[in-house]
């Protein structure tokens, strides 16, 4: 298989700052290419950009607490400087708050909820699907979860990882884009039960990170789709490296048939591993996390470009972002360099090392 090339996804030929991952699947090499500005003429795939399937992933989103106090009713504020998501075929974030004003708060240190009308923030930002498999979606009980699901459904935003029953929580969301069939699944599991509420056969909650469940779910959907994407809410907060048991678990899930694993929860960036030609992003870090008072953060947006004629051919771009007052934007030069340095360091612990090149 020869190397592939493609133009940037920008349909209006804008210049983007980005970090590119080139992935070797079979004979396609994975490398990291840091570039300050992308030229519209830069070629990555032989196919035209519109023929590729573009997926976007960002990290933890909590439109509550400090965020709500700062933003109020300015629904355009969070995505004012980012239009990447609306230009992708499918864009996804980790939604860590129920959209509700009802329900009783859980007996825990931090509980989040926000205005139901904030669903319009996700719509305006171009978000197509959210994972609800996290430790805050049940902060206001079944009522809060049901309200969230109803509001997302009404707003046309798909969701995975939680539901009124265990089968609902485990149910995949399937998209068909340019004849490519993609399945999304999501699971929660931090290794503790103090802030979890697992769904059961007859009660609401999240899909838990159980390897037997995950193998079953992949097996049931694998023959019906071309790509399987798994989201995990896992790891230790503020740690930049995954735990050994996480890596072993991720490898087992890839062995079971997953193509991509996207991680959340640590609230900081972690490394990206290549395992058997598949990609594991252990943590994308915070994106719009109003649950804390930090007014400045650095993070990434992960973009995956797939050849719909051969789902085994894909590339990954990493866009560094700066978040100021819970408003992400393309990172400036110094912040971009810092993100690249961090990503190189955090990924260096994996046997499948990446080559980082600055242009």
TrEMBL record:
Classification via SMART domains: PGA_cap (SM00854)
Domain Capsule synthesis protein CapA: 54-291
Organism: Caldithrix abyssi
InterPro entries tied to this protein: Capsule_synth_CapA, CW_Biosynth-Accessory, Metallo-depent_PP-like
Protein name as annotated: CapA family protein
Pfam families per UniProt: PGA_cap
Family listed: Belongs to the CapA family.
């Amino acid at each position: 298989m020869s190397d592939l090339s493609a133009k940037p996804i920008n349909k209006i030929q804008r210049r983007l700052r980005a970090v590119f991952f080139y992935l070797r699947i079979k004979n396609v090499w994975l490398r990291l290419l840091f570039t300050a500005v992308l030229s519209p003429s830069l070629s990555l795939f032989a196919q035209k950009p519109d023929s590729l399937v573009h997926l976007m992933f960002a990290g933890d989103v909590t439109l509550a607490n400090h965020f709500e106090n700062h933003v109020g009713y300015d629904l355009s504020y969070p995505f004012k400087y980012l239009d990447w998501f609306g230009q992708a075929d499918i864009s996804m974030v980790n939604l860590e708050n129920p959209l509700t004003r009802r329900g009783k708060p859980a007996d825990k240190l931090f509980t989040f909820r926000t205005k139901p009308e904030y669903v319009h923030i996700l719509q305006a930002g171009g978000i197509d699907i959210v994972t609800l498999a996290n430790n805050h979606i049940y902060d206001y009980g079944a009522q809060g979860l049901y309200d969230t699901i109803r509001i997302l459904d009404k707003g046309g935003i798909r969701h995975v990882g939680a539901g009124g029953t265990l089968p609902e929580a485990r149910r995949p969301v399937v998209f068909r884009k340019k004849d490519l069939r993609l399945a999304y699944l999501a699971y929660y599991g931090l290794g503790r039960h103090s802030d979890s509420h697992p769904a059961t056969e007859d009660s609401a909650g999240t899909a838990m990170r159980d390897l037997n469940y995950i193998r079953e779910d992949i097996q049931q959907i694998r023959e019906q789709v071309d790509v399987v994407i798994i989201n995990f809410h896992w790891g230790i907060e503020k740690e930049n490296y995954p735990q050994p048991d996480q890596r072993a678990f991720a490898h087992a899930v890839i062995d079971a048939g997953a193509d991509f694993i996207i991680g959340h929860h640590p609230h900081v960036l972690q490394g990206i591993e290549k395992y058997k030609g598949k990609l594991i992003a252990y943590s994308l870090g915070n994106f719009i996390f109003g649950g804390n008072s930090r007014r400045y953060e650095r993070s990434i947006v992960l973009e995956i470009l797939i050849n719909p004629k051969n789902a085994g051919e894909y590339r990954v771009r990493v866009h560094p972002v700066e978040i100021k007052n819970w408003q992400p934007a393309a990172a400036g030069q110094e912040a971009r360099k810092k993100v690249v340095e961090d990503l190189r360091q955090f990924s260096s612990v994996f046997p499948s090392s990446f080559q980082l090149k600055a242009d």
